[in-house]
Amino acid sequence: MADGGSYKMRAPCPKCGCDDGFITESGAQDVVRCSGCKWFCYNAPRVETGKAVRTVQTVHAAIKPKQRARILDRANRHCEVCGKSPDSGCVLHVAHAISVEQGLANGMTDIELNDDENLVSACDECNLGMSTQPMSIRFMMALLRARRMRGVF
Description:
Elements: E1 6-8, E2 20-26, E3 29-34, E4 40-44, H1 46-49, H2 65-74, E5 92-96, H3 100-105, H4 110-113, E6 119-123, H5 124-130, H6 137-149
Antiparallel strand pairs: 1-2, 2-3, 3-4, 5-6
């Protein structure tokens, strides 16, 4: 489904009752808005909109299994972004705090990008939510404080 094209919403618009909508992208998310009043209605999964589903690569070639285990252990096997653990049904991945795309654009080397300090434990949802954007400074400071409190440094 192309951005901006007519889209049959799963429920009428809560503001005006219109059944027709259109899709726009916000980051990596498909946003459904009402055609009549342009009101935000919901975020649609890509399987619903017909777009290719984004996936997380579970094994990054530059991140060796030993390093992956070290990163997950450092985070006590929890997502460092939202706190979920595999007990809640999430799958943990090793994500880049500064994305590969942003890092390369700013002159970082593969060694710097894949250093333990640039890697975090993240669930599917948080890892995909970060997309190609680096983590905010506020989040990075909170992450560093949490690591320090756990005696990781």
